[in-house]
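Researcher: Here's the sequence for the chain we discussed earlier.
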Amino acid sequence: MLITTLVMLMSVSVHAKKLPHYVFVLPDGYIGWIQVVFDPNHGSPVVVEKGNALVRVGNDGIVHLKTYHTTFVGSTDEFFYEQRDANGRIIRKALPTDFTCSIRNSGMDFCYEPSEERGADGFTAARASVGKAGPSSEGSSWFFFIGPPALRAKNAVRVTFEPGTKKWMDHPENDPTPGRIKNEQ
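Model: Thanks. This is the structure I predict for it:
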């Protein structure tokens, strides 16, 4: 029974990497908030690489994708730093495993369930705020933090729930500022 369960879990994990998913490529050493703005009327077309959606993030932490908010159910996203090797070639190096959270569904990265006590280290906003193109951006956004657990907890945003519920009240003024931060460990 135990062996069967382990084989099933390993096959689910291997299968998740084969499904279409997001591949995030970050500047070397990036730590900070990322905002992915989905707006079918503005932004850059989605680049497909080996069947996956390639998302290049700059130092400002804001990416505009000319598409609707999309998740790839059952898949696991990948996160890489782009750097130069000893020969000067550009390579991708996987982020440290504790800088992101392994989740079963593509598209949102958060390590813990948002709470009023801990805040949130990743969330979806139905409207774009910080990185919006104009005063009435039509795009929704993902916000998530890349970095070690201590900084993830320190930089979590404040959340407020509707009284007596677990329904998150959307306050754009609480949105984090995307971009690289100094590693303060």
